[in-house]
Specification:
alpha+beta, 5-stranded antiparallel β-sheet, 12 strands, 31% strand
């Protein structure tokens, strides 16, 4: 099956054995990237998607390797960890980065193309930019007008991914438990945990706002005035 259909809380698995079937899948998703494949090797790409009310966790494996060039306009952040193999990303002014056993944060607004070497295994969380910015505004107590720019590659010593992975593993266990015990409320808390972990532990251009001390029980309008000054 190569349909791109998910409900609010769902899990779907696909296995592609040709580049054409992968192109059809992404076309159904409204993305239609230009797919690049090493012609000397048979194509093999597996993807399991866990859907949490508009946030997606994708576990992928590719024995053959493949690449893509972005065609459609998207506005999401990808938080990706490469367990094995190499993932490479070209991101506008940032340039090209290659990661192996590292965490990479990709802003789709800057994404040009990506590539997975043969034998690459990744977990990637896709978060809508608008959702992330709303969550950040709630954290600081007033609207955040500046776009969040994350450090694109975190060192292996970073504690951010171990925190993320604990939540990622919990999400997988949650879905494996079956619909009989799944709870929309529990799923919403897992989603919230991912958002807060990213905002509070991954360095970005507005991290300092989260550590500002403005006094206990400080009204939101005071916070806004202080930030303006």
């Amino acid at each position: 099956k190569s349909r791109c259909t998910v409900t609010s809380i769902n899990i779907s698995s696909v296995h592609f054995k040709s580049a054409d079937s992968l192109k059809e899948y992404y076309a159904n998703c409204g993305l239609s990237p230009a797919i690049n494949v090493e012609s000397a090797k048979s194509f093999d790409y597996r993807k399991t998607t866990y859907s949490l009310n508009g946030m997606y966790l994708c576990s992928t494996k590719s024995l053959s390797g493949w690449g893509f060039e972005k065609q459609a306009v998207t506005d999401v952040y990808f938080i990706s960890f490469t367990y094995a193999g190499v993932s490479a990303w070209e991101m506008g002014k940032v340039g090209r980065v290659s990661v192996s056993q590292q965490m990479c944060i990709i802003d789709s607004a800057n994404l040009v193309q990506g590539n997975y070497a043969p034998g690459t295994f990744t977990d990637t969380i896709m978060i809508e930019a608008d959702l992330l910015h709303r969550e950040f505004s709630s954290l600081i107590g007033y609207p955040a007008l500046e776009r969040l720019n994350f450090v694109p590659v975190l060192p292996k010593s970073s504690k951010t991914w171990p925190l993320f992975r604990s939540i990622v593993d919990t999400i997988k266990l949650y879905f494996d438990a079956g619909r009989d015990v799944q709870s929309p409320i529990a799923a919403s808390y897992l989603k919230q945990a991912l958002l807060l972990t990213l905002l509070e532990s991954a360095p970005h251009n507005q991290s300092s706002r989260l550590t500002m001390k403005t006094g206990e029980a400080c009204p939101k309008f005071v916070n806004r005035a202080i930030d303006y000054m």
